[in-house]
Write a structure and sequence with these properties.
142 residues, alpha+beta, Arc Repressor Mutant, subunit A, D-Maltodextrin-Binding Protein, domain 2, two-stranded antiparallel ribbon
Length: 142
């Protein structure tokens, strides 16, 4: 596995510079100084050992290697963001599985409304409703 010991913020800065085509515009979008963004991207380039941008008075243009790296890194950054969001959703109970055992006499009314509201709030959570007899309920099965 490659060494990814660099600060992920620096990667974000480089992605924004590539999107904006300039260090100034990227810095403005981050509410940082242009020199801060420029220094951090240079540090990233030094850690990677490859220049990502060609810099001139008009702005910043990706090198061919930088273009490949930013394209791949953007995919990776998006996957990492998705993984973090999924982890947080799982921790909050927004994803997963809920198993409900019920007797047919309880299937309507408030339970139907409750399940509908839950589904609207947590569309990624799986709900399994299984019918059970009163005998199963008495001994705690399901």
């Amino acid at each position: 596995m490659p060494d990814i010991a660099f600060d992920l913020r620096y990667l974000r800065y480089a992605i924004l510079v590539a999107q904006h085509g300039s260090f100034r515009a990227a810095a403005e979008s981050l509410d940082l100084s242009q020199s801060t963004v420029s220094r951090r991207v240079r540090l990233l380039e030094r850690v990677l050992g490859v220049p990502l941008f060609e810099r001139d008075h008009k702005g910043a243009k990706l090198t061919p290697a930088g273009q490949r790296f930013i394209q791949d890194a953007t995919v990776g950054a998006n996957l990492l963001s998705d993984a973090i969001r999924d982890l947080q959703n799982g921790h909050r109970g927004a994803v997963g599985e809920i198993r409900i055992g019920l007797m047919l006499s309880l299937a309507g009314g408030f339970l139907a409304d409750l399940l509908k509201n839950f589904r609207a709030r947590y569309p990624d959570a799986e709900i399994k409703v299984e019918e059970m007899s009163s005998d199963c309920a008495k001994i705690g099965l399901l």
